[in-house]
Amino acid sequence: MKKIHFALILAALLVAGTSCKPKQSAYKQVYEAAKEREMQQTASQPTTVVKDANPLPPVEVSVRKEKVEPVYPTDAAGLKKYSVVIASLSVKLNAESLKTRMENEGHQVILAENEQGMYRVIIASYDDKTQAAAKREEIYSHYSAKGNTDYLRKTYGVPFNDLWILERQY
Question: Domain tally for the chain?
């Protein structure tokens, strides 16, 4: 009888010990779901071609229209119609952390929040789409010419080859 009780207790402990392991962390599931929504939104937005005065071929720039508001009142004056977005994050603390790191590198960063609660990390903002496109190209060229895109992806978690322009809706 004691052997049966011992075997049942051992089996119960074995089942309990193996069933408590999570398959995936809750944070990872939420992150992946948000990233999937972001990718679907990006795919559904039309890509426009911005032509500049130079005889170079036109630069294709991803432009998205959104209603956004600055997170901090001090950023309100700097948030213009067209903004270069380097990251979209769902967690405010992560967006603030990226903002701080980019400001330490000399960039003037603005945080804006859209209606869905996503935080847009903006590295430059202009009233003119051509200026925004030129700044986007400058940032991308600066980091990709030096081979720094992998370094920046590891350091900031931001794929700098995926910069896009936000057209602010009021």
Answer: 1
Full-model pTM: 0.60
Average pLDDT of span 132-151: 73
Rounded Cα distance between 64 and 109, Å, is 19
d(CA 43, CA 108): 28
On whether residue 86 sits in a domain, the answer given is yes
DSSP string of 126-157, one letter each residue: ESSHHHHHHHHHHHHHHHHHTT-HHHHHHHHS
Please name the residue that has the structure tokens 């322009």: 165
**Percent helix, strand and coil across the chain, each rounded to 5?**
50, 25, 25
Which tokens hold the place of 66?
């959104």
Q: Which domain holds residue 81?
A: 45-169
